[in-house]
Amino acid sequence: MEPMTHEPSKTPSASAVVSRHLLMPQHANPRGTAFGGTIMAWMDTVAGMAAERHCGRDVVTVGIDSLAFKQPIRIGDQVVLKASVNYVSRTSMEVGVQVTRENPHTGEKCVATTAHLTFVALDEEGCPVPAPSLTPETADEKRRYAHALQRVRQRKERLKAETQAHND
Amino acid sequence: MEPMTHEPSKTPSASAVVSRHLLMPQHANPRGTAFGGTIMAWMDTVAGMAAERHCGRDVVTVGIDSLAFKQPIRIGDQVVLKASVNYVSRTSMEVGVQVTRENPHTGEKCVATTAHLTFVALDEEGCPVPAPSLTPETADEKRRYAHALQRVRQRKERLKAETQAHND
Amino acid sequence: MEPMTHEPSKTPSASAVVSRHLLMPQHANPRGTAFGGTIMAWMDTVAGMAAERHCGRDVVTVGIDSLAFKQPIRIGDQVVLKASVNYVSRTSMEVGVQVTRENPHTGEKCVATTAHLTFVALDEEGCPVPAPSLTPETADEKRRYAHALQRVRQRKERLKAETQAHND
Amino acid sequence: MEPMTHEPSKTPSASAVVSRHLLMPQHANPRGTAFGGTIMAWMDTVAGMAAERHCGRDVVTVGIDSLAFKQPIRIGDQVVLKASVNYVSRTSMEVGVQVTRENPHTGEKCVATTAHLTFVALDEEGCPVPAPSLTPETADEKRRYAHALQRVRQRKERLKAETQAHND
Amino acid sequence: MEPMTHEPSKTPSASAVVSRHLLMPQHANPRGTAFGGTIMAWMDTVAGMAAERHCGRDVVTVGIDSLAFKQPIRIGDQVVLKASVNYVSRTSMEVGVQVTRENPHTGEKCVATTAHLTFVALDEEGCPVPAPSLTPETADEKRRYAHALQRVRQRKERLKAETQAHND
Amino acid sequence: MEPMTHEPSKTPSASAVVSRHLLMPQHANPRGTAFGGTIMAWMDTVAGMAAERHCGRDVVTVGIDSLAFKQPIRIGDQVVLKASVNYVSRTSMEVGVQVTRENPHTGEKCVATTAHLTFVALDEEGCPVPAPSLTPETADEKRRYAHALQRVRQRKERLKAETQAHND
Fold it and tell me: What is the distance between the alpha carbons of residues B47 and B144, in angstroms, rounded to a whole number?
């Protein structure tokens, strides 16, 4: 059996990242609001950068859980993406991403999109490899850790139920 | 209260779409496999085209449910995306997308990624508007309809539980 | 002399491909209609994918014959590209591409562009190599094969005439 | 009947354009040579700029005649595109494009691709409108004018033959 | 004479921004290091976002002063861009940008590029309009303000000398 | 000490390049004028091509001096970029770039942007290597050489002054 990594545990804030983009005409549909696909691609990149910083290795996206587009983002808006690792279970890391739109003229800000993405750490041959464990420190980090743990369990149960249904 | 649409019901196959892309170097990481963000953007576009064909209106992505990257896609692979409307509830349409990678040299094919995306139909002012209802015909369409209905219910329960937790 | 390939003959439908794109603002000029160059690039990709599926090898575009833009494509239109191998002569494959624009709101469809592209199959060193022969089956496939054969002959005659003119 | 334009005739050199691109990794396939689609898009843009300069109006691509990829272009090559109007017949302008690849390390140059593209001049409503007539001056310009005139006639004959064949 | 703005003065930290990008193959030359043009475009965007946040208006880049590429950035590096307004003189704002490359595997970080960009605030008609004044607070902000003031004076002297030389 | 190159001296015109782009919607902000970052990226590419032609080697951008955006460029404008080597000092080459915007409908032309970029020639290992010396021939080339020499000296003095200031 593949051994657990012996690298020291890390905090979520040690690998958290923030990025800011300007929504330009080529990111938007003819109504002037962002394409879902553009925002998803930005979220995947920023979440992947947080996961890479946590494990110090190449990573690969394995899934997205409940991405919700809550508010439209318009051409000219500044788009702030924050990503931090919520939970780690051996080779896989759940990263939470929050996307805030900011109107630079009015100063108005609101959360536009949120999602949880899961990444796997890879070794030099591209095979899954254990990631350092995660030590949440602040109350916020602990809450996110607990919620992620719940999601991981629910996902497993859903998968089991779906497999069961297939076999019936 | 906003009335139900009086447009005739449609079948999933009436709006189903297929697209095919070539995975080029600019879609891949240095290990030669597709970026998650690129595939997500393609999935969003193809799913949105199916939703638009179903309702005959502009649509906007409101969420993604359980996107899973099952197999890597490599530079040179042909990528086949199939999207069809699974379920409609008034203004929102759930679209299933299946991504198959195909090696054009060996002929090898396998399902690489799947996801369910939800879209809302918009009127000329960009406000949500009822979409035509969906009439699944084949056994496969009926199974997908039933599963989507289950997912919609589970999503509502999860949302209720999360709101409850927030209020506690 | 390089031998003919011994791979079994294939039908046009075995390698035919279809793709669908959404015409976005970045694909269009300020009048809101598609750039010729964007559509050409999409046609080259889809035709190359059909050629690659026919020969199971890398291919390279060697020419385009009589590409005609018949109808403009507008922002928001869905663009359906169909490509199939019309004719094969040893190392070169003629692929026909038909581009249909589809307005997802009105359901209106019309052929916007057509072209014939020629590809050559390449071996691992990038040298031309024989492609499997083509066996047209349906009446439509047989008509396209006959027309392509005529074009190939006319191209050779034109080349001969041009060379003759140069030498005069 | 729409009158001929009264704008003064122009020479080919008055509107001729030249452009130079660097072939970067994102323009190439995994073998390191240019995608046909990338080169086609660059050719369309440069030819359109020459046509626009000739007529002083918006233009639209209506067709391409016998594009030939003669030599591969490699990553790192400089790509020189030259376009000039060969022939004008009322609303349509035939533009010749020659693509030269240049290796900046060895200084080696060779013609990689050639094509003839046809554009139509548009008025403010997007309707075809007469373009200024063309007055070839140099021997080279006169030869290109004569060859283009021949191509225009052959195209008309081919179209007539194809229509005839359809009606038989 | 156009009046000074009556908007309250702002600190540099109120409008400072940070962004993070992943250097992907399409941003790099065949040696695997970032194209200067890609980094410049990212610097312009991030600096423009800081300027826009400072003045609450559209802005336009009017110049760049002494951009220096100090260290190469490689494919796979994370690229952190920090921008803050250094100095404001009526309608123009000087923004300093620092680009740090970060190797996510080794954790190694170093300053790769720095530059000073100047932006002008625009009103609704696109005409220059006064920007809020700048109040540097920290020692670092005061030092940057003083250096920027020096650069602005040297630029004016150089311009005067160049004009003088032209008139001689 | 690394020896001077023994390659023969070259004139500025031997490596000068010109390129022409069409300003499309995706290159512009919502007001319809070019993004600074787009123009910078084009300037870097064209200047790098001139430097590469001068030294016959790979080059890397090391800095930009006093880039000035003088006139806005609008969607639909043709953008002409001219680059030529102004000055060479062992491994580094200063390249001047002039960007002219041209309205193809009115024929109006004006200089929109100018800048001086510095490149270093690289050997196969990516290390700086001497470039051929430069022999200005025309009066214009000699004037540009003299001005560049002045800028190089001023840059050195400024660097010295800045270092001095740091040490005080």
Answer: 15
DSSP class of D25: G
In tens, the pLDDT along D66-103 reads 899 999 999 999 999 999 999 999 889 999 999 999 99
> How does D86-123 read in b/e, with b if 16+ C-beta sit within 10 Å?
bbbeebbbbbbbbbbbbebeeeeeeebbbbbbbbbbbe
Which residues in chain C are closer than 8 Å to F24, comparing Cβ atoms? 26, 29, 35
The amino acid occupying position D120 is V
Tens of pLDDT, residues D100-135: 999 999 999 999 999 999 999 999 888 999 999 999
Phi, psi of C104 (to 5 degrees): -70, -15
Cβ contacts of C36 on chain D, cutoff 8 Å: 44, 48, 60-61, 117
Residue carrying the six token digits 């729409």: D2
User: To the nearest whole angstrom, how far is the Cα of E86 from the nearest Cα of chain A?
Assistant: 18
Min distance B116 CA to chain A CA atoms (Å)? 10
Q: For residue C91, what are its two tokens?
A: 């190392």
* Cβ neighbour number for residue B160 with a 10 Å cutoff: 10
Query: How would residue B75 be classed by pLDDT, with cut points 50, 70 and 90?
Result: very high
Q: Which residue of A has its CA nearest to F32?
A: A25
pTM for this predicted structure: 0.92
Q: What are phi and psi of E62, to 5 degrees?
A: -110, -15
Question: Would you list which residues of chain E are within 8 Å, Cβ to Cβ, of chain D?
Answer: 25-26, 28-30, 35
Q: Are strands A78-89 and B92-102 parallel, antiparallel or unpaired?
A: unpaired
CA–centroid distance for C28 within its chain:
23
**pLDDT tens for each residue of C111-142:** 999 999 999 999 988 899 999 999 999 999 99
Interchain pair F41, E41: CB under 8 A: yes
Chain B residue with minimum CA distance to D32: B25
Can you name the residues that pair with F78 across neighbouring β-strands?
A: F22, F102
Nearest by Cα to D64 from C41, C30, B20: C41
Nearest to E95 by CA among E107, E109, E81, E106: E81
Distance CA A65, CA A63 (A): 7
The structure tokens 């080459």 sit at: F93
Tell me the count of C-F CB pairs closer than 8 A: 12
Look at D48 and F104 and tell me if their CB atoms are within 8 Å: no
Work out the minimum CA distance from C23 to partner chain F, whole angstroms. Answer: 13
Q: Are residues C69 and C112 in contact, defined by beta-carbon separation less than 8 angstroms?
A: yes
How many residues belong to chain F? 168
Taking chain E, what is the end-to-end CA distance rounded to the nearest angstrom? 32
Beta bridge partners of D120: D60, D92
Question: Could you tell me if B99 and B71 are in contact, meaning their C-beta atoms sit under 8 angstroms apart?
Answer: no
Cα(B97)–Cα(F112) distance, integer angstroms:
47
Cβ-defined contact of B45 to A68 (cutoff 8 Å): no
Report the distance separating Cα B1 and Cα A157, nearest Å: 38
CA distances from B65 to A111, A116, B96 (A): 19, 11, 10
Contacting residues of F for C35, CB less than 8 Å apart: 24
Helix (H), strand (E) at residue C63: strand C58-69
Structure-block tokens of residue C31: 């009048």
* DSSP run (H or E) holding D86: strand D78-89
Q: Give, in order, the Cα–Cα distances in Å from C75 to each of A29, A31, D57, F25.
A: 9, 11, 21, 12
Q: Assign residue C41 a region: left if phi > 0, alpha if psi is -120 to 50, beta otherwise?
A: alpha
Task: Judge whether E42 and E81 are in contact, CB under 8 Å.
Answer: yes
Six token digits for residue D155 = 């195209």
Report chain C residues whose CB lies below 8 A from the CB of A30.
Answer: 25, 75-76
Angle at Cα D9 formed by Cα D5 and Cα D12, nearest 5°? 125
Asked if C56 and B105 touch (Cβ cutoff 8 Å), the reply is yes
